[in-house]
Structures
1.
Amino acid sequence: MSEGYLYFPGCSLKGTGRAYEESLLTLFRLLDLKLEELDDWNCCGATSYMSIDEGAAFALSARNLALAQKSGKNQIVVPCAACYLVLKKTQDYVERYPEIRDHVTASLRSVKLPMAEPLAIRHPLEVLYNDIGVGRIRSKVVRKWAGGPIACYYGCQAVRPYYEVDKPVDPTRMEELLEAAGIPSVPYSLKTKCCGGSLTGTIHEVGVRLNAILLKEAVRKGAKAIVTLCPLCQFNLDAYQSEVCKLTNQDLRMPVFFFTQLLGWALGGDPRELGVHRFISDAASAKQWLSEAKEVAAHV
Amino acid sequence: MEIQRKLKHQWEAHPEWAHQVAALPGCEKLFSCLQCGTCSGTCPLSIYMDYTPRRIINLVREGFREEALSSQTIWLCASCYSCAVRCPQKIQITDVMYSLKREAIKSRLFPKRFAIPALSREFYSMVSRTGRSSEMWLVLRMAMRSNPLILLTMVGTGLNLLRTGRMALRREKIRRLNELPRENSKAMEVQ
Amino acid sequence: MPEEKFEPKIVAFFCNWCTYMAADSAGTSRMQYVPNARVVRLMCSGRIDPQFVLDAFAKGADGVLIGGCHPGDCHYQEGNYKTLRRITLLKRVLKEMGIEEDRFRLEWISAAEADRLRTTVNDMVEKVRALGPLRLSAKEVIPEEVAVS
Amino acid sequence: MFETNGTARIGVYVCHCGTNIAGTVDVKSLAEYAAGLPGVVVSREYKYMCSDPGQELINSDVREHKLNRIVVASCSPLLHEHTFRTAAEKSGLNPYYAHMVNIREHDSWVHQGEKEAATEKAKDLVRAAVRRIRYHKPLEKGYVPIDPNVLIVGGGIAGIHAALTMANAGKHVYLVEREPTIGGHMAKFDKTFPTLDCAACILTPKMTSVKAHPNITLWTLSEVTNVEGFVGNYEVTVTRHPRYVHEDLCAGCLQCIEACVYKQPRFDDEFNVGLGKRKPVYIPFPQAVPQVVLIDPETCIQFKKGTCKKTCVEACGDRQAIDFEQKDEVKKIKVGTVILATGFQTVAAERVPYYRYGVYPNVYTSLEVERLINASGPTGGEVVLRDGTKPKSVGIIHCVGSRDEYTNKWCSRVCCMYSLKLAHLIKEHTHAEVFNFYIDMRTPGKGFEEFYHRLLKEGVHFIRGRVAEVTDWADDASEEGKLVLRVEDTMSAMVRRIPVDMVVLSMGLEPHADAPEVRRLFNISCGGEGFFTERHPKLAPVSTFTDGIFLAGCCQGPKDIPDTVAQAGAAASEAMALIDAGSVEIEPNTAYVVEEACSGCRTCIVLCPFSAISFVQEKKKAAVNAALCKGCGTCVAGCPSGSLRQNLFEDEQIFEEIEGVLNYA
């Protein structure tokens, strides 16, 4: 790991998903993993761009790959599920479709950028699981969880259609890492169902309904919190909870964490540096669980 | 309640269009669809669509262009790829949906006052100009273009975001804007 | 004829039990491929005498393709191993004669691999087309006896 | 009459094969072109050369124009070479003066829409043949005697039926079965569609008569481990694995099972696909044939620790049938023909993970449910869930592992019908609400569609849609504790959630995992999907390209019991046709030595895998034993002095062909 990883934050991690960035950087620091932010990166284009102009969409995200190439590093860590997928898909389709490759190459050439050689586009979950490993996480745990079982929620674009982050049908790496950190999880059958993404902002009522389903099932399975690996999932489940409760008239309130927050906390990170103050729903429990920590021996 | 005529004449179909779609990246296997409905069954949004994904595939395959392009379905698709990875014929349905969205916007066939095309276009123009998307500005402009009432539903959320410091008020911009791909005027003239 | 499009001629020696059948089933399933190959049917690729290949090149073939059963699948137990031994030797001879590697190919294609046959022929013709017509320089005399076994 | 190798008078016949060839190849100009080739006396094109009038054409031309060579440009020689050789023979020529050019499989069918190029190719190929055939020689037909004994591999319904058919006709049959009993999949079924007659009632009598038949040698727990020789004369090695019980001594009294130190059965019972339990000493099922117990060394204490009280041996008493020392026994047999009836396996349900088999206990495979319904099954015919309760609602999912790029592309052909059967039986046993989820309902068979209608009337739900997922996610109280099937009801174009107590996965059929080894052993070929390939899909559906080896049942492709039995009968009669002919014609494409040229270097001797070449000391020359030679020609290519030659593949013939295709006039 000496040479470290490039880091592609994506727009959300500078805004609504700020806590994801904060906790990710903290966690990686605790594990002595170097993250170097890609200089002058641009928006990946997300799903909207693809809906307007395919060529431009690929060219846009290809610029990031080109910048990465110039930086000389051969792997880039992408925490946002949407960015992760777009970058991977760009690399894949450029390989697979000559017409796309030609368009992108031309577009990059026109601004004096190289067409990047394939590089390793990686999600932090998979980096932690493969490069650090459940065992090392377990050995570094210094705090004891008091927050009750959680439901691990993977959403869609991190686990589909590319399967490097985890198994497609029943992913379990978040559970494994969190179990190692002493945080129990419940079997959660909706872990790879979609939260609707930007629908909450566009066809609001539908977006909210999708999140209602996710929260209801989490409560039904006895989860006290939801853990995510995507800024949009976290935003939807967190920001619209009160609405969901109204809609279903059930009390479905629970904190919605980033897995990096819980791991960072278990490894002794400063709650403030993990973005503990950025929760909207049930912020109280979140704060409580992430601070009231008894130190424990370095094994669980 | 209004009564609709459902008869379709073959001259209303555009078989050649089906083949154009099938020629696009990701849409190659369009014609191998068995109409099994796995896509609709696994889709979290199919329950809100006017046509289920399976029916969209068949509309395209049979060349019913207007029906497919003006459907709400393609805009409800959240690109979660469930259908794409589950289709027993490996049809990349998500890519099919994208190509339909693009054509719908180009040919102005999307549902009026429907927020999503507006969002996409705002997003597109903002990113092409600044290289970054700033959620708040995006939402504002999207709302203005489609249905300002949306904003009301968002006030609360907005305040919460402000309170927790999760809303970027400053508009992000990259340094080397010149490196961004040129805006595709054809796509944008729609505005 | 470099001015008009050059159509390579490929002589293909196929064993009766695997590759010839693959070509048959490619037909029955109407797979389409380039019409440049001419098949000479033999019972086993083991029957292929290096002189057949040299003769083919000498008499104007732009490429020679040999198709046999996968190692271990030979209808005659081990004929294709013998082929392999001879071909490796022959390849050297051809190299010395200045015949590019892509012009001479040995492929194991089982009766089940119709599609593999299709792609192999397409691919080889494409490569040979890129190389252009084979011109054996005048001093090139095909050795009458190439004893390889 | 024209047995001359002298000046060739060649007749060329171009076949249209309807439009199959004529649609792509310009047959007229091809025939005209051929007419101009040296040695060609007559050149014609005709609609169907393989038809009687087509062959008659050859016949009359031979008489009229004194032809002595025949070139037919039509389909693959693997299909009609024999036809045209016979035609030549009928017209008084030596059959080997006829030669075929493949302008269908290798030309018109693969270059559709390229009329010009395809016609050019056809011309090249015809030219090559015309040049080649000038060097043909009259040859004696080769014959080999057929050993009347037959080997049948696989003791399912296909193998059983073929064995009885041939045994009744007085042939001696070696029936080799890998499992401890014959009966195969059919023995596991409860009822059979569409007639619903009980599988055991129709199968077990046949099983017992196999055992009883004087002409059948039945070897269970046995596998074919080596095959040598050729049509009419196969030498087969069969390895009989130990059952640790002497078949001839065991009376099937089953007292040893009673006496076993394990008081309760506690090991997964293979016959009940893991749903039931058995002891280390057991009999697969009550009507097993042979009616002989066996001991499973994996679970028997005596084998694992060597410290067992051996109560089973006591119980067996004077019979002394049990023998812990039993070892593999190798049998060598000679047979003339072989029938492969090695059957199929069902797709492993784990390969379709979205249906959660092995995750949710109440998801079952169709085969498991067959055992649950079966009166002699683990629950005595009670259809109950793993917790012993009766399901109130059942979902049956068709096409699991079939018609799917991720598992198998093909339709397994029997799933629709057996799913209907299971739906009926489950309803009958449990009065549960039954839902069938299908993509297309396929009921092409006698009484099949009628059976479908019967189920419609019985009130079984039929939902056209492939279930997307089986989940325990409850959307509301009505779904609590149920398995929910989320599916698009494509007929009403609605997505539905259907909660059930039991899910049945109708697993598809696929080739046995070790089909490739069997294929290699018997030197036959497989299709891309792994089923054994028949010689011709329509005209030779039970033969293979290896003479004397025939196919029966699902090893050739998925099929139901009636078709399997029909095919087994066909395979049996094909084999008997060979046997009763007493001998079979073989290609005279053997190698021979031109003695004056042979230097006696012995290179060839090591080249021959069949040790058909010997070295004659007194002459110091090699000699080929035509009876052993298979005609591969490897020795011919290897002979440094060119003194080894091969009939039908003489160097001249091949050189002519090469130069012919290369347009050397």
Note: Chain A has two domains: 5-124, 134-289.
2.
Amino acid sequence: MSTESYAPPILEDVNVIVAGQGGDGSLTVITLLAGLLREAGLNVYTQRDVLSRIRGGHAAATLRGFSGNRYCIGSSIKLLVAFDFEAIEKNTRYLDNHSIVVFDDSGGKLNGQLPKDVRLYSAPFNRLAMRTMRRELYKNSIAFGLVGRILGLEDESLMKTFEHRFKRMGKTILEYNQEALRLGFNLSNELGLAEGEGLYKVKKTKPNKQLLITGNESVALGFLVAGGRFFTGYPITPSTEILETLQKWLPQYGGVARQTEDELAGINMAIGAALTGTRSMVATSGPGFSLMQEGIGHAGSAEIPIVIVDCQRSGPSTGMPTKPEQSDLNLMVFGGHGDFPRIVLTPGHPEDCFYLAVEATNLSQQYQCPVFLAMDQALSQNTATVAPYKLDDVVIDQGLRLNAEQLENMEVYKRYSLANGDVSPYTVPGTPGGLSLITGNEHDEFGIVSTSPENRIKMMDKRMNKIEKAKKHLPTARHFGNKKSEIGFIGIGMTYGVILEAMEQLRDLGVDTQYHQPRTIWPILDETLRFIKKCKRVYVVEHNAVGQLAHMFMHQGANSDKLIKVLKYDGTPFIPSELTNKVMIKEKKHIKSVKNLKREATLQ
Amino acid sequence: MSTESYAPPILEDVNVIVAGQGGDGSLTVITLLAGLLREAGLNVYTQRDVLSRIRGGHAAATLRGFSGNRYCIGSSIKLLVAFDFEAIEKNTRYLDNHSIVVFDDSGGKLNGQLPKDVRLYSAPFNRLAMRTMRRELYKNSIAFGLVGRILGLEDESLMKTFEHRFKRMGKTILEYNQEALRLGFNLSNELGLAEGEGLYKVKKTKPNKQLLITGNESVALGFLVAGGRFFTGYPITPSTEILETLQKWLPQYGGVARQTEDELAGINMAIGAALTGTRSMVATSGPGFSLMQEGIGHAGSAEIPIVIVDCQRSGPSTGMPTKPEQSDLNLMVFGGHGDFPRIVLTPGHPEDCFYLAVEATNLSQQYQCPVFLAMDQALSQNTATVAPYKLDDVVIDQGLRLNAEQLENMEVYKRYSLANGDVSPYTVPGTPGGLSLITGNEHDEFGIVSTSPENRIKMMDKRMNKIEKAKKHLPTARHFGNKKSEIGFIGIGMTYGVILEAMEQLRDLGVDTQYHQPRTIWPILDETLRFIKKCKRVYVVEHNAVGQLAHMFMHQGANSDKLIKVLKYDGTPFIPSELTNKVMIKEKKHIKSVKNLKREATLQ
Amino acid sequence: MTKTFTPGRPIWCAGCGDFAVQGILEKALDSSGILRHKFMLLTGIGCAGTIQNNVHCYGYHALHGRVLPTAVGAKLSNPELTIIAAGGDGDGYAIGAGHLIHSFKSNPSILYIVMNNSNYGLTKGQPSPTSPTGYRSNVEGDLDAILLGLSISSTTFLARGFSGHPEQLEKLMMAALEHTEAGKGLAFLEVLSPCVTYYDTHREWRFRVLDVNDDESYDPGDRAKAFQKVTEIIGEGKIPIGLIYKGEFPSLESLILSSDHTPAALQDIESPAIKEDYLKTMNAFLG
Amino acid sequence: MTKTFTPGRPIWCAGCGDFAVQGILEKALDSSGILRHKFMLLTGIGCAGTIQNNVHCYGYHALHGRVLPTAVGAKLSNPELTIIAAGGDGDGYAIGAGHLIHSFKSNPSILYIVMNNSNYGLTKGQPSPTSPTGYRSNVEGDLDAILLGLSISSTTFLARGFSGHPEQLEKLMMAALEHTEAGKGLAFLEVLSPCVTYYDTHREWRFRVLDVNDDESYDPGDRAKAFQKVTEIIGEGKIPIGLIYKGEFPSLESLILSSDHTPAALQDIESPAIKEDYLKTMNAFLG
Ligand SMILES: Cc1ncc(C[n+]2csc(CCOP(=O)(O)OP(=O)(O)O)c2C)c(N)n1
Ligand SMILES: Cc1ncc(C[n+]2csc(CCOP(=O)(O)OP(=O)(O)O)c2C)c(N)n1
Ligand code: SF4
Ligand code: SF4
Ligand SMILES: [Mg+2]
Ligand SMILES: [Mg+2]
């Protein structure tokens, strides 16, 4: 094992994986590192890869630190911290010849498992921890010392971070961890890695005043700020953080966040709250989302405002609970029995999550129908640095709601008045003069059950008209890239950051592209169909097995010949180079001269 | 009130409505009449129109008696039996100048409410019943006497039918009803309608040896005969008869038909039975079907054979429980979270219900996945005469199932073996040597939970491949009409009979058409896409608000320009003339010379 | 006054027990002095679940089996409302059984009326969880919801009335409403309400009911004794009615809503004052 | 012998109570002499719901909360199988509560083991229906599933063990298995099985458990007395364990399956002999 002297560049983009067994604390290492890099003025993106079990089993956390804007992990991993052999096995494929590996050789030395030229630092972290601290879990802190040195962070800043993090856990724990960290520094010295001699130099700028936040937390925040005051959830990965975050916050605002006995109670309790005029949300994932179908259709039929967050994970059924997917899109758009109006919004990063949660909450009130936020595990649980949200920009739209004074001036109040042809003004219980009947049976304007064919048609049309009306006001897509390019991308959620980075790679390869990032997928907006029409070929990038999104465009009239499905459904996110390569393979036959085709190899 | 002497034609096609309040027994009258006409060698189709309440509210039953083949009520009603004013109000629109009305004027006389030239027989049936029999309910039997006379049935045959029907209810009830019937005959005489002087002559042929059966009963029978032995249901209109029929039959065959505490228990209990190798079915309607989504996806994921019957009613939510619709197609095809294989079959009449129930049961075993039967209220509950089903033709396909002997010759048994690339042979508990793990989590070939990306892809592909494999073996469409015609129809379920009759009317009007009746709508078979391609215009006739079926074709690549959506979602079935007119309006601009355009008026 | 919907005429069959329930409910409401617009009647699906159409108040028709969670959602977001949930025995004890247990457990101040006719009326008489062994296809023992309620430690009010004993039913209804209005938790009132069309138990029940409160020594405050008494009465082939149990446990809304805040439904969510707090909440993510 | 899956190594955290449950279940199975291929272990979702992966038998992983109906379906279609259902307290008492009641009520001969750790282990420690007031966000009273079982008149076997008392647990497991095997109905066995990671109750429970069978005068045959005893013990801050109730009620399969027929799963549905009967059934529609 040798390290050569090395003139460190400024840290501008680095990817780090920490991996071991569940419970080994890989997530903790990455969380600490994320804080440190943010302190150092960098942006950060982190990702987790765990199993659906509490201890044991391979678990990894990945971090990217960078200046600029990235919403995904990069194509090649610079540093792998591996607490066991399995961590090496599972992650070697992300390494290249420039990578560095820190390996815990308590269980045996590595030989030959790594790509040649990889620099290896190995040490028996576990044994060291057991010997000196009597507890295995301190191995992280020891390794962390080494990681800091490699990345060119100052010992001092690591110490501070530890203080910040472990203080609340009590003095002893803090001291033990600090001791472990010092052990790590000593070990680094022994391995020839003195302070300031790391791989990078970290430019000292002022700390990055950005939020370090997940999509789930951003959704919770958006809901709160949009006046959301009632939330129900039932624990399910990867949505649980929304429940837990709102359980912390909502009571401080006089709101309620309730863990219900199941998802059926969840959706119906939220509906009950919505009936009183309280802005209500539920969050769940596939299995719970399936269970909510009846309640969702009911909200559509009875015209009850409700926001449903689906943090998609790998399905079907219990599937792979901790792995990302985008395979509930069909269920969001076509779920529930019978025809009813709905709106499906698709955030692409935490900022979107915040702003679209605000929008969703308002839209549910304006259109009195279910509004979905289509999340995915990566978007839900990965953290990213983002500029603080502009709370002052948040406007609350109460929709057509009548109070007692307004009612007094009305001769007759009909909950389901056909007067507007779509949305009808409503009152909430407690309002004098506003009595109403609300029902999921077909009903007349007063809410009285009716099976009159004439009434039925009017009521159905009234409900469905909301969609046409809403179309003009729904969140529109963001556009990136060259508007003239023949080649288009469409992708939502976790593919957002990957597509943007692949576009850069493609540009470097001489291939110009443009990207339409829809933020509403139901109804499908004209802009999206126009984008498809305008392009020669559109790569629809999605995480499911059949191309749910691409077919949805066809369902609404898009020409199937133009759509190229780029699908991934193995429970892992795309990495940018993977996408770039997939596109290059297809494009080769279309492009006369591709400048840098040789570079492709380096992107494998 | 006068009747003129009249030379009665042979009864070849007659439509009769009996209407009154729920509980008035309109259904009984129609049922009796159906039996009588069948006795007389005619074919019969009956339809009901009731409210979701037990007594009171408008309720009607309609019957068509005919020689030849019809699977819908015809365009004009010959005879309306009305027990109150509402019955007149709601049904006048179906009358024309040749119609006859029998009216119970106990509540007052009619004046002017009827189209002119309608022949009216009115009498105070209710008062008569109360006066002579002390119970209102005998009014049916009195009126029935008059109906028999009008239709030209023999008094004797009515008496016999009464005997048959009321015998099991005890002697008193039988005698009372017969007395009432005799009252009806006397009344007819008073009204100048002697025996043999009715509207029609009923040709005496030998009794029609046809089944008089509903779609629901046919499904139950098909399931039974296909070896189905386990059924669960939870009462819900219009599926309940399947539960009730199988509760009667299955125990006689050592099977189980269980009413569960809810639909969640229902689908999962059926899955439990399926795990043991027992052929299992559930039946429900919209609300219950929504609740079953999680279970259905689970069957898709864990590869468990199960047949799901959805007797569609007007949605969304509780909707109009007793009214027909075809608006759960989206949920059948796109429901459940995540991607999994499924098959959706669409019978068009009771015969289809039987044979497709057999197919569905076999297919579920062959492909180890959920198989749906898409019913609708009309198909489920209306009765029709059909030729006895050919039980000898029923073949049972057990799929790839291994017994102990077969296992003995295998070195290793893997429940989810990838060897075939799609379906894997399975064993059932109790089989020595066949231990397996079955799970809705992603799993390896043995059923051990796995999140390996490589395994995931293989397993997902294996499951989805079943659909490609199945495509070649799924029930194909029936074709009707002129293969050369530019104008196509597509329609399933309750639209079948209407389309066929509209085609005849169109032919009479000089418009040639062809009809593709798909019996599989998922996967969409190539034949269907080919049919659309071949036609210039395809009328997709369906009972929902958005054109779910039409869009499904687009979803699979059909050219939207060719598809003309013909939608009805007011809770009433199409009548043939209505469809004919809709088509004529569109076709006028395409057709140079339409021969008989004047005839259109008569079809209103 | 603004005209709103006109309460419907009941759709029940003549003689249905549900008429009595409606009459007595209206009486209790009237004498309680609760303003009709402060009062919300939520129901499940079934014959029983049409009662809201006939009453002059805010009415809501929930999904089959889901009336309790819906009612709880309404109560928690606006505790100033009087919330009454109602439905049939199929609705409450079959498809809704899980929610019943959990509502017993969480004890929100709502009044829950189950119109028990021991069958599924609206779907034409199939057996329900309270149908006796032998009714149609039923082979199971029948469920006693009061025993069920007794088995959960946080229940506070369990009573059973009979539509054929309107005076006693009225007393129970008033007591239940009072319990709820006083914020003491869930008032559970089962009413034996015969279905004359599919399973006419009128005469049978009249003969079988036994009012525990007739015995003056009966103590509705002792859970185990109540259990003992109810099992005993059932053992004798009778059906116990009356106020069977009344206990104390803090109501759900009193436990999770703080009096420092306006209830969720009544807050001015557009008030600029909150923005400061939002900022604080967000800034926790600044590290 | 054909090679099939190799039972997995448990994924539980070191010290988890579920290890004991598995060990004792395997022991009971072995000593029962039931052949492994005649035996099916169905589970819910959760840490508890992974036990089937570790046992050599037919294993099935149901949906969250749905293990009971699934198990009942298996039993009714093939009563010759030994059916064991297992899962966590969240699975059984929260999302699964309705099915628990109805399985108690219908009394199928299956053994149902609930590994109660008073929290949702697999989703990281949220409160479950058995969590005490004050555990994390929980404000509700905790549910006692044995009391619940007592409240339903057709329950036949209700017991609670503790993973920290393996000998007693083994006895209960054997008795429960015997009950099921004898076709006497549902054997309900709750095991207090601490979750060392999120809610380590090991020491507390060891101190609080009280075996009702220690008192020789205790009569597990008297429902009301059992209820009385359990409430009393709970009132004293203790947790009653032991065989708490054993009664008699015909099992579901004995009531609905006739001995004239081969069980559904074992029938030869291709036998030409049945066609005659089918014809008769169909011909009823000929009028
Ligand atoms: C999810 C769902 N399943 C089934 C139904 C059909 N359904 C309507 S009412 C009812 C039962 C009614 O019984 P009960 O609750 O006892 O009320 P009752 O009519 O006896 O008053 C059922 C099963 C439904 N509406 N929704
Ligand atoms: C419908 C549904 N909702 C939620 C989940 C997520 N989930 C998995 S396990 C679990 C609870 C586990 O708690 P418990 O049953 O007590 O088992 P334990 O892990 O404590 O053994 C939940 C909520 C799911 N799988 N399915
Ligand atoms: S069917 Fe029974 S419960 Fe329903 S209204 Fe009639 S009598 Fe009442
Ligand atoms: S989290 Fe708790 S219940 Fe789950 S395995 Fe670990 S100790 Fe056991
Ligand atoms: Mg009922
Ligand atoms: Mg648990």
Note: Chain A touches chain C through 80 residues (CB under 8 Å).
